Every structure is written in C-alpha cells, then in structure tokens.
Amino acid sequence: MSEASETDSSGTSDLDVRALQRRLAAFAAARDWQPFHTPKNLAAALSVEASELVEIFQWLTPEQSSRVMEAPETAARVEDEVADVLAYLLQFCEVLGIDALAALSAKIDRNERRFPAPGAADSRGGERGDRHSPE
C-alpha cells in the first residue's frame, strides 16, 4: 500500500498531504507536464473539475442529492470528481508554496471570530451569523 493511502480499521484514510503532493508531482514530471502546471492553468483546471462535480447534482432535488452516494455508479462519479478537485487543489498549493492544511486552519480560526456561535461568550461584534459561506 502506498504511503499516502493507508486505511485504518474504520475505513478512513490517514492521508499525508505532502506524500500526495509528491505523487502528483512525480506523475506530472514523468509526463513532462510541469510547464503546463502554472497557477493560472491549475486554477482553471480546478474550476473545471469543481464544475463537473456540480454537474452531477445539477438537476437533483435536495432529497435526491442527499442520497447520491447510495447508487454505486453515481457514488463512483462523485468520488472521481472529488479526487480531481483535490488533486488540482493540492497541485495548485504546491506550485504556490501554500500549506493547504495550515491555510484551512487559519481560515476556520478567522471564521470562528467573524461568525461566533449564538450564545457564545464573545458573540458581540461579529458579523451576522446567518451566512453559510465560509468566505
């Protein structure tokens, strides 16, 4: 089993982001794709793959979308698109020197300050807490 895909007894992966980034870089290098892996191109590819994920859900009702993983064929499509999105995001971060997990942790910290939970001791001064987007 590769160093980036070990699975524990609960079925969850113990992913190593750096190992995945190394595998993606090696994959691209073996095919001489590095000249094409510019931030602009990777951002565009990320957007395309995210759109392909959205396409699966486009005409589903909320109820149908909640059950999308019940159909093996659709579940496989969702997993493939999620993998494509993550692959391009990791490559994008690698090219720009962004630590994806540190960036996410910092963003969660900022959002916790911006959108305090109702009833939180420091709920004064935050922005409206009814916004769903973590922008």
Query: Largest sheet at a glance?
Result: none
| Count, helices | 5
H and E string:
HHHHH
Shape: globular
Overall mean confidence score, pLDDT: 87
Question: What does this protein structure show overall?
Answer:
Helices cover 58% and strands 0% of the residues. It contains five helices and no strands. Helix 1 crosses helix 4.
Task: Write out key terms for the chains shown.
135 residues, mainly alpha, single chain, disordered N terminus
Which helices and strands, and how do they pair?
Layout: H1 17-30, H2 39-57, H3 62-66, H4 72-96, H5 100-114
In short:
This protein is an all-alpha fold and 135 residues long. It contains 5 helices and no strands.
